[in-house]
Amino acid sequence: MTEAAVRLAGVTKSFGSHTAVSDFDLEIPRGAILGLLGPNGSGKTTSIRMMMAILVPDRGTVELFGGFPDFARRSRVGYLPEERGVYEKMKVLEQLVFLGEIRGMDRKIVRKRAMEWLERLDLGEWAAKKVQTLSKGMQQKVQFIGTVLHKPDLLILDEPFSGLDPINQEVLESIVLEQREQGATILFSTHLMEQAERLCERVCLISKSRKVLDGNLKAIKRRERSNVVAVEFEGDDRWLTRLGVTEIERVGYAHHLTLNPRVDSDRILAAAVAEGVSLRRFELLEPTLREIFVRHAGDPAPEPALKAAGGAR
Amino acid sequence: MNTAWKQVWAVLRREYVERVKTKGFVISTIAIPVLMLGMIGLSAFMAVRAEQSQRQLALVDFTGEVGEEVARRMGAAGYDLEIVDSGIGLEELDRRVLEEEIEAYIVLDELTLQEGAFAYRSRESPGRIRGALMESIVVETVLELRLSLTENTEGVRELLGGSHLSFERLGEEVSEVEEVSGIVTGVAGALILYMSMLLYGQFVLRSVLDEKRNRVVEVVISALTPGRLMLGKILGVGSMGMTQLGIWAACAALIGLVGVPMLAANLPEADLSQIVEVLPGVGALVLLLVYFILGFFLYSSLFAAVGAMCNTEEEAQQANFPVMMLIIIPFMLQIFSLEGSAFAWMDWAAVFPFFSPIMMFPRAVSGSVEWWMVGLSLFFMVIAVGATAWVAGRIYRVGILMQGKRPTLRELVRWVREA
């Protein structure tokens, strides 16, 4: 059982003249937690829909658990689509029972388990209410329960945290991490870099339908380190100019020194001690995910308004 | 129960329970029989009221010869008519009409004896039926009077009695009551099939469309095959329909078993025994059920396919049209053939599977086609149900996950071939 939980190889998908995903390779090992990152319209949802066999790739292969994503394999997945699809007229508990039942679970067991989840997510008293009476955020939590109810081996979550308040985001984050501890593989997409940074062990950045980079987050950061040192001290700052750094930038109380590649950070520390300034902070800065992304794909902030193109992304 | 049937059962139950629980279902189940009974009651009530509100007619006879006979015959035809003295004056009679004491008065005079012409004075026209009836009464009376004054009229008098068409059946003898029962059952059955196929078919379509539009289907389809989802859905809506029809049938049976004897007890003069004889037999009901089930599978799988290939309500309404025509056309043809002047090709049209439920059921129960033709239609329907489910299932499978514009006919063919 060493095959990857998800494997995409050379996957391409176009809608008319618009290429949504282009030559996408990705491998998610079992037990990993991977964040699929990119601005809106970059091809995240299309990739995910291909993993769930909702869309068929024009080229390339998609595999779940080492084979074609057929029903047997897909039933091991908990899938949360980007569009929040629920049976609005159904009662909350009934809906969850139905979702469990079609996955072959026993009615009684699924009812009990669903109720436990509802209690845990503070929705206990809503169990007998119709879904449409719930707020969007609550509906999202109900739907989330639907994806973990059958204890899937793989969670594929498309923007699972968007639209939630910080407290609920945190609750769901902790559940996602807990699922991972229990052995599930997790893939989730987000356009929030900070969140991915907090949760993920692996990331995959995509922009304009192409993969920019992927791999272990720590390794990426090490590789992408920009040789910037942040120093905070009290006293005269003239000693900084004698160090031969390429750039000095004042950020709040700190100075960010961009080092010449030949200069070792230890020399800066030594110089500070020699100068006799009282040092408050000395830190080798790692680039944030956002900075790495910008470096590779340009600023993701101005999000293209592709939402109007409907689900065809 | 293995997983496949468990899943189908889960879908079926959801579809059934969610529908039966709705206010719409409860209201329509109760309201329709109440409404129908109400309409029957109302029309009977109106008829009685119309009869009672009918005011008197008067007749003035200036001939002194035919007045009494005309009045007698009109009385026999059901008119409340009184002869008034010719000395009373027409102004007085006009006043009575205008003040609504009487509805109208008839004036017979010399011209009546010569040409059969007479006046009908009223605020309102007598209407075509009343007019024709009165004309024939007056003309017959005058003719008889004039014939009685002539010699050699033998045989003419009999002719005046009117001609009579006597119908002689060729071929197998069917009792009249049985024949009426067959026709009534057939018409009622065709109407029930027509309405339920349209209504419940729409439910299937709406259910598929809703699931597709709010994307629930993407989650559901990750757990079970589209075929099982479609089957469960059709069975669920079908069970709901059978429940509703069953409730109505039970109501009807209750009225038949309790209401008719009660009515008979209260109205001893009315002969109600014939009503019981007109009621359909068990065989006809079983046949109706068979046509309902086969027809429902046939049409609803098409409706499911239509729902799957559309994205919006408006699109669905357009795409709906061809399937609805498959239900409406046979109903129209059935109405044409009610007259009894059916063309022979209509019997063959009734063998066409999509026309069978609505056209063959009435033919079968009224005995106007051979039994082997009924069997043939059932055989074709079973084949058609299988073939339609196969095609519709493939369209459904591709369609429910397809967003964007509605497919063209050519794309549909590709879906069916490649799915």
Nutshell version of this structure?
Chain A has 313 residues and is an alpha/beta fold. Chain A has helices at residues 44-51, 71-74, 92-101, 107-120, 136-148, 166-181, 193-199, 217-223, 265-275, 289-297, and strands spanning 6-15, 18-28, 33-37, 59-64, 77-80, 154-158, 185-190, 202-207, 210-216, 228-234, 247-251, 254-258, 278-285.
Summarize the structure in words:
The complex is a heterodimer of chains A (313) and B (419). Chain A is an alpha/beta fold and 313 residues long. Chain A has helices at residues 44-51, 71-74, 92-101, 107-120, 136-148, 166-181, 193-199, 217-223, 265-275, 289-297; strands spanning 6-15, 18-28, 33-37, 59-64, 77-80, 154-158, 185-190, 202-207, 210-216, 228-234, 247-251, 254-258, 278-285. Chain A has a 6-stranded mixed sheet with strand order 5-6-7-3-8-9, sandwiched between helices. A 4-stranded antiparallel sheet of chain A has the order 11-12-10-13, covered by helices on one side. Chain A is elongated. In chain A, 37% of the residues are buried. Chain B is mainly α and 419 residues long. Chain B folds into 2 domains: 55-160, Anticodon-binding domain (Rossmann fold, 3-Layer(aba) Sandwich); 174-231 and 281-418, no CATH class. Chain B has 17 helices and 4 strands. Chain B is elongated and about 95 Å long.
